[in-house]
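Problem: given the chain below (308 residues), write out its structure.
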Amino acid sequence: MAFFLETLLGGLMAGMLYSLVALGFVLIYKASGVFNFAQGAMVLFAALAMARFSEWIPALGITDFYVVNLLAFIAAGVVMFMVAWIIERLVLRHLVNQEGTTLLMATLGITYFLEGMGQSLFGSSIYKIDIGMPKDPVMILESTFQGGILINKEDFYAAIIAAVLVAMLSLFFQKTGTGRALRAVADDHQAAQSIGIPLNRIWVIVWCVAGVVALVAGMIWGSKLGVQFSLTTVALRALPVVILGGLTSVPGAIVGGLIIGVGEKLSEVYLGPFVGGGIEIWFAYVLALGFLLIRPQGLFGEKIIDRV
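Solution.
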């Protein structure tokens, strides 16, 4: 029982990190109706900015660890806001009311731009992000279960950070006027414009929010894996999450991430020995494929009905 709970908790913590990356996809899709293939590049760009600012700020005479990280986070956040403004100003503003395919191709172009610009500005080496999260494991519930349950502190704190951000974004979408405007824009661009919702401003806001999400995701994943260009593949791990939860649902991204995280861990432990291992790599994609065949809109996505 202890081993099962240990695996389950590990899956839940990994699932929260998947949910965090998936949120970036959901935010952009809710505002523009397009699947943002640039999300992985945004995570990489934000992580590169955070890592490099953490190295450059001490040269200014600031040596306190927490102050350096705070200033680096703020500076990287400003960079992501600037990136969002440039994307809206130079790309999205000229594509208002265009077909979804056009916007999709635009995000592919943004992907290559961010990858190239990130390498030009911050370099292409492997960098380290140290935000002070403890990496040592800890045993809990030793009095309840023999041997206790082993928990990775870094994964635990990362999951807490992701959960807090996810909760804040959920409240933002449900309780604020800007959040309701974002949902209106997602439903119909032209109708939203007709009632006075400024589409360009809404897109800047949502890309800024997605940039902050990418920054937090890049900070956490960079702390765990190091900041390198393979970090863009983290977004691929979130694709099954948005398929499972639904492209238009913030709660769906949360539930989908938890299901994928737990499913990967449990399948690897209990099914892996029967199939030769490696099931954790492809389990999520097989599950997503099954949902595409049975319920393509996902668990919480809106069902599209075309009347003829």
